[in-house]
Amino acid sequence: MNDKDTQNEQLESILRRAHVPEPSPELKERITSEATKAWNQTSPELPWQIPVRRLLVSAAAAVFVIWLANCSSDYALARWQSGGLPVAHQKPLDLDELPEIHYGPLARHLVSTGRKPSITNASALRNHAETVLRILNEAQQNGVSKPPAPVEGRSRLFPTRPGFNSYS
Amino acid sequence: MDKILPDNMLQAALARNDPAAVELIWDRYAGDLLAYLQAVLCSRHDAEDVLQTVFVRIIRKRHRLAKARRLDAYVYRIARNEAFRLISRRKKGRTIETVNESWLIVPEGSNKSNDMAEELQAILARLPQPQREVIVMKIYRQKTFLEISRLLGLSQNTIASRYRYGMERLRTLLENLTL
Phi-psi category of A82—alpha, beta or left, where left has phi over 0 and alpha has psi -120 to 50? Predict the structure, then answer.
């Protein structure tokens, strides 16, 4: 550490052989005259003006941001109303047009099912209900008895097992 | 040197809007600021130009300076910003490169002393700017680490480590020069 300090002192003494010159009188004359000119040109800025100016700038910036947001939303709304943007519902795809697209059969199926309109088909629903009824009837005929009527105050959802409440 | 006023009296003159404050600011800061700017820019000519801009800016902002908590740090901040503005303009090629005038002087007027000044200047110019400015302020303006840290708004440890690394680098550069 002492060795380093000595080396630093030696280096400092080498550096101190030179010095940075002081500003010349000509430079002083030039700069002070420019500064005095600037002093006379600029009106004294009153202390209360600074926060007021900052407030005005902030308010102007806020108004600009709000105006920009309004413009943006108006533009988006106008595009949506004129039908420029895609809407949620779409026509079902014509499957005859699909072979032109390079999809496999699974992709075609997925596309066709995915694009199917969500319209309830009454006859299909009726068929489904009939099928369910038929299955229920068959199950009844095969010996599945009706569930016992619920005891007063007891839920039908829980099955009654023997000895379930025997501890009480 | 006796005329140099403390910062609070300078601030009082600025607050009174007294034009004599220009001269007082000059006496208080011109020497230190010129050395600092030369350390940052490595050019006497550029440093003088930037010093003029700094003074004009100080005058325009005189009411803010009158209320500044630390006048010296504020003044150095202006000088630093102006110096970096010039450097960035140089990088973008918007200003003409000036001839690097000598910014270090060796008192003896011989040719040998001129050579030495140029060598020292060249070696200092090879240091990173943050290390160079600390070394110049410490060695050529006799500032303490505490004073430099307050002026530059950095911790005293940072200043000390910049000085130490800078001196190590200088030593290596000087050894290479003498070998």
Answer: alpha
